[in-house]
Amino acid sequence: MNFDFKEILSVGLILFSIIDILGSIPIILNLRKKTGGIDAERATLVSAFLMFAYLYLGTQILALFGVDVNSFAVAGGVILLLMGFEMILGREIFKHNPTTGARSTSIVPLAFPMIAGAGTMTSLLSLKAVYHVENIVIGIIINLLVVYVVLKSSSWLEKKISASTIEVLQKVFGLILLAIAIRLIKENLFIGI
User: Fold this and answer.
1) pLDDT tens digits, residue range 120-172?
2) pLDDT tens, position by position, 46-73
3) Going by fewer Cβ within 10 Å, which terminus of the chain is more open, N or C?
4) What count of other Cβ atoms lies within 10 Å of the Cβ of residue 137?
């Protein structure tokens, strides 16, 4: 096994930036008001299923389309770049389509696409090109624990975190995401040419 604390920390921070659960608190609170509640356990379990499916089956899915992981990592880097710009500039590039109903809200839009959407899939496959799988698994588990805690305590968080603090967190994680995206593109762009 290749457990590496530095890799786990990097993976954890990358996924934390992508999932942006703290930045999603206003959306979560709005969904809770509309639907009357959020099932934190269900949303976390569905997100876990999707993330592990991306990690272990994502390459096979790409192979069906004749795409290698390094090419996907570059494409993923571009998506992460756009997501970072979205977070920093406060402009919505990737549209979310909220649905109604407390039960369905736990799946759409919480588990997918907010927590385990295209950005998460892209990130996991991109990370798989750079980091050891066991470190990615630990990074996923850490993030799922954070997601669960945030979803479970969203009403408490609403009282404790100001809107300006959430905005600052989005900007900081957006900048980190831009740097990570540039690194992914740089490391995978010319591999196999």
Assistant:
1) 888 898 899 899 999 999 999 999 999 999 999 987 876 787 878 877 877 88
2) 999 999 999 999 888 888 989 887 787 7
3) C
4) 16
**CA 133 to CA 123: how far, in whole Å?**
13
pLDDT at position 52, please?
A: 97
The model's pTM: 0.73
Is the alpha carbon torsion for 91, 53, 12, 4 positive or negative?
Answer: negative
Q: Tell me which of 113 and 7 has the higher pLDDT.
A: 7
Q: Exposed, middle or buried by CB within 10 Å (0-12, 13-18, 19+), for 93?
A: exposed
Please report, for the chain, the start and end positions of each structural domain, with discontinuous segments joined by +: 5-26+66-188
Which residue is it, tokens 């470190």? 135
Instruction: Give the closest residue to 7 by CA, choosing from 137, 179, 125.
Output: 137
2/132 Cα distance (integer angstroms): 7
Rounded CA-CA distance 143/185 in Å is 24
Q: Is the backbone peptide bond immediately before 26 cis, with ω within 30 degrees of 0?
A: no
Question: What single-letter amino acid sits at 5?
Answer: F
The position carrying tokens 């990592």 is 73
What is the SS3 string spanning 40-76?
Answer: HHHHHHHHHHHHHHHHHHHHHHHHHCCCCHHHHHHHH
SS3 96: coil
